[in-house]
Predict the 3D structure of the following.
Amino acid sequence: MERTFAIIKPDAFAAGHAGSILTRIYQEGFRVVGIKKLFLSKIEAEGFYAVHRERPFFGELTDFMSSGPCLVMVLEAENGIKKWRELMGATNPAEAASGTLRREFGSSVGENATHGSDAPETAAFEIGYFFSGLELL
Ligand code: ATP
Ligand code: MG
């Protein structure tokens, strides 16, 4: 079993899609190992996305991620990292396959409803950024 880190981003949370997204998560066979609602500060969002610090959209991205509450989660499944990225779909909702979460719930490349770790090392950093061992059951 492999763990990945996921976020229901502020756009999807504010639009009331958290319930539908969680239903999909359970339907697809993930186990929810940890979950909590957070309202990230700008500094917390910048720390989380530090790898993107030099990208032109860093300011816009961290403003958006600190614009409202989100749900942070640790999900577990066979091949969990790849499986969750497949369920999310492409970064740009307009290019995401039909049936994917970003296609259904995202509205732009910035406001794209969900986040998922892209590799085992990233997942380890991202899980540790938000969760202590005691919160992962
Ligand atoms: P994530 O890391 O959120 O799962 P991803 O791996 O598909 O998404 P990245 O390239 O890692 O995409 O970009 C991280 C996030 O930055 C994207 O999810 C998106 O919200 C935002 N982003 C990416 N490209 C742009 C862009 N050109 N303009 C605005 N925001 C962008
Ligand atoms: Mg990424």
Q: What stands out?
A: The chain has a mean pLDDT of 98.
